[in-house]
Amino acid sequence: MERARVPRPPTRRFTLPNGLRVLLAPNAESPTSSVWVWYRVGSRNEHPGITGASHWVEHMLFEGSPRYGKGEIDRAVVSVGGGLNAFTDSDFTAYYTTVPKEHLDVPLDIESDRMTRALITDREVERERTVVLSEREGNENWPEFRVEEELYQLAFRVHPYRWDALGRREDIEAMRGEELRTYYRRFYGTRNAILVVAGAFAPGAVEKDVRRRFGPLPDSGEDVAVRDREPAPRGERRAELEGPGTTPYLQLGFPAPALDDPRTPATILLDMLLGGETRMFAVGSSWGRSSEHPTSQLYRGLVDPGFAVRATSEWRPRVDPGLFTVQAQASPRTDLVRLEKEALRLLARLGTRGPTEGEMREARIRLRRAASLAYEGASRTGFRLGYFSVLRSPEFEDELFRALLGVSRRDVRDRADELFRTEARVVVTYRPTAGEAR
Amino acid sequence: MIDRPDPLRIEYASGPDGLALVRQDPPAGAQSFSATFVAPAGWGFDPDGREGLARLANHLVPCAAGRLDRAALAQRLDRAGATVSQQCAPESAEVTIWGPAGDWEDLLGLLAVISLEPRFDSDDIARTRRQFAERQLREASQPGHRADRELLRTVFPAGHPYRATGLGDARSILRITRRDIVAFHRRRYTSGGGLLVATVPARREKLEAVVRRRFGEIGAGGERAPTLPPLRRAGGGVTSISLPGRSQVEVRLGGGSIARGDPRFPAAFLANEILGGRPLLQRLFQHIRERGGLAYHASSDLEAMRWGGYWVAQAGTSARNWRRVVRLLSEEVERIRRERPPVREVSRIRESAIGELPLALETTSDAHELAVEAAYHRLPEDHWRRWPGQLRAVTPAEIVEAAGAAFDAASEATIVAGPFGSDAS
């Protein structure tokens, strides 16, 4: 197999005695510096009663720590022109701050202060409860969110992937401050964290600074492994939702392998061929997927003939086995039965005929092109280094890249045949209710 | 190549047939290229009865062009590792290409073909019509979209280019023919009022030569800004739109505003940053989210365009709290109009706005957005270098004075859309 690799900036790596892994990616030309802290903690580490705790803790880490009172983190960063935010996934939580290069000490000080010592007071927990609920309600306004939440609830009966990272409404309403503090103390620690610094700085000086700030933190962070294993499904699972919306919406789910499964590269190729791209190696100036991929199989099979106005697929890299999903928004005057039939026909055909050699060739070209410009800018560098590190390691990106280039047409066909089985299928449909105000 | 790139400067050059051409250095170390063709082809130019034409044409432009049908064009872009995107607004329409810097000449050529020789194939038109029909439904039924649409309809009178969202309605979209689209494109995607902005690792002379070659066939045309009818006096009160079954109420307060060319713009910009524009520090976020816990999002926007503008203060909240949120939004807007902001607050917001300029130079795409903005508004070549000085010269008194004009009270309207139950009045 060829030794292809993603052009990544040189990185200095070290691990502190307390277990904190550190990656420094200096780039003297950058006008900024970007600091990312990735915790291998997400909604998969929760249990019923405290669903949404990871996301809520994410909010609370902006609400006070010993050196930064409420609102002071925001003020410290934004006042110097920086930007900051955070996001919570099922498998990880990430915090990032990008600042003009001369202010790198600001985010380093903040992250070292809140890594193990966030205050999470009852008063702030109470105030934030309604904000978290409001975030959830804003998402509920979208049928796509309701459908996906239902899909995962149906697909998983044992594993924590069955709830969304935002958590269940009932849990958000009932959770207590002490439960959030306990959760934080258990999992937020140096052993579960990865610190990435990218941009303009002197690596020697910053290494010294990082050791000084983060070295004294206690060796902490419980094992994040989840032992729950989802039993194999024994038949199709289905739900039909109704509510306000535009046109009928369909989402299909199929149990998919975990990231370290040898079938993963073929699954990713399948996602590229059906939906047009994979989030991990997407061509473009931003992270994420564009909505229109006219060369993708779903687009050609559902949008072009007029069954859908949008159609795509998604496989998300996950530590434990997750779902491969297909979603389609029907065209006006297309019914759900027809849309589902056409979508399933397309998936079945891929499992029998497989993709063409031309499609495989084009997919490999897209992969190479996407990889070539993946690391422009300090923020994107910090993101990618941290993302692949939290999944496994920076080199994992190369391993995956090479494996993707080595996937054959037959691998994809076999993968589709195995993946899109009727007895493993989960289907959620959404019918818009009539009579809305115009 | 550029020895010491300075992406904070733009450089005016000349394109064929009077096409305005603007060049910008990419950030140091950047490996990508970006170029945007801006045409005076926004939905403010939609003919009566053909509402949606500008946006439909703009959506179709990057579908297929020249000898490349949709599949061939998509394949060509994929092979180049490039993307094309489009954007439409009331005044203008844009097509942007992005890709590897080493291939910039070819990509610029592809942008010329896409912008100037779109095919408008019948299959693409039919598909786009279906997509627009669904988007129209979304605009009517999604609380945020619906509130945005109703606000514009309330603030701006019939015939005003900012009154619409450009999607048209079911009937107008069906009425639009391929001939309408072709004619609109021929009239408006031209050199007259057209603008090409390139963030490119090449000197001006080289860029001009390539543009002359690639855009040589551009048609001439004239830009004429429409006559704007005066804004209506909204008359106060709250317009509520009941959308049962949703979870959250979207609140919008808004009204007319000043144009970008108005000399008060730097002060108005700071007024908006203080009110709801500057992330995390702004007053709406602080009062509605951080102190009140009433909403996840609360912010304001100042849309200052060439012909005029509008402002919006917005938040999403529960059905129980929407009245309180309306009151808080209203109080804060009124406060920025009447009270001089404390010097310390002005200073913090201003230095934040100035300090973030380096963040806008991380990637070619980021820098390119600055260039397009400056070029579209015909700002000086060193505008972004002078911008910090302009902001530092603004006084608190000027902020209050500018806020009075930028957050026009006479045309102010309030819209709430969402699930009220029996509490809609």
Arrangement of strands in the largest sheet of chain A: 1-2-6-3-5-4
Question: How many domains would you count in the coordinates of chain A?
Answer: 2
Tell me the series of helices and strands of chain A, N- to C-terminal.
Answer: EEEHHEEHHHHHEHEEHHEEHHHHHE
Q: What is the third-level CATH name, the topology of the largest domain in chain B?
A: Cytochrome Bc1 Complex, Chain A, domain 1
Give the integer mean of the pLDDT values of chain B: 94
Short structural summary:
The complex is a heterodimer of chains A (438) and B (425). Chain A has 438 residues and is α+β, with helices and mostly antiparallel strands.
Can you walk me through this structure?
The complex is a heterodimer of chains A (438) and B (425). Chain A has 438 residues and is α+β, with helices and mostly antiparallel strands. Chain A folds into 2 domains: 12-214, Metalloenzyme, LuxS/M16 peptidase-like (Cytochrome Bc1 Complex, Chain A, domain 1, 2-Layer Sandwich); 237-432, 2-Layer Sandwich (Cytochrome Bc1 Complex, Chain A, domain 1), CATH 3.30.830. Chain A is built from 15 helices and 11 strands. In chain A, strand 9 (308-315) and strand 10 form a beta hairpin. Chain A starts with 11 loop residues before the first strand and ends in a 6-residue tail after the last strand. The model of chain A has no long low-confidence stretch (mean pLDDT 94). Chain B folds into 2 domains: 10-214, 2-Layer Sandwich (Cytochrome Bc1 Complex, Chain A, domain 1); 238-418, 2-Layer Sandwich (Cytochrome Bc1 Complex, Chain A, domain 1), CATH 3.30.830.10. Chain B has a 6-stranded mixed beta sheet with strand order 1-2-6-3-5-4, sandwiched between helices. A 5-stranded mixed beta sheet of chain B has the order 7-11-8-10-9, sandwiched between helices. In chain B, helix 4 (122-141) packs across helix 5, helix 9 (265-277) crosses helix 15 (396-406) and helix 10 packs antiparallel against helix 11. The interface between A and B is large, with 77 and 77 residues.
